[in-house]
Design a protein that fits this description.
The structure is a single chain. The protein is mainly α and 59 residues long. It has a domain of 37 residues. It contains two helices and no strands. The longest helix has 25 residues.
């Protein structure tokens, strides 16, 4: 049965990526989860959207 399930990242990998993302937030140690998400959404989303659009145009 498990062979039919899609592969998912390990917990360790996910934790590592989350830690890296949090460190992009000023004073992340003093922020709660919602504040971190809000900051990342508002600061990094426009960059990622632009990057995604550029990749689609160059395909």
């Amino acid at each position: 049965m498990t062979k039919d399930l899609p592969k998912t990242p390990s917990v360790t990998w996910l934790r590592s990526k989350w830690t890296t993302l949090k460190k992009a937030v000023p004073n992340y140690t003093e922020c709660d989860f919602e504040e971190i998400l809000d900051y990342l959404y508002n600061t990094h989303r426009p960059f990622l959207k632009k990057k995604t659009t550029e990749n689609v145009e160059h395909s």
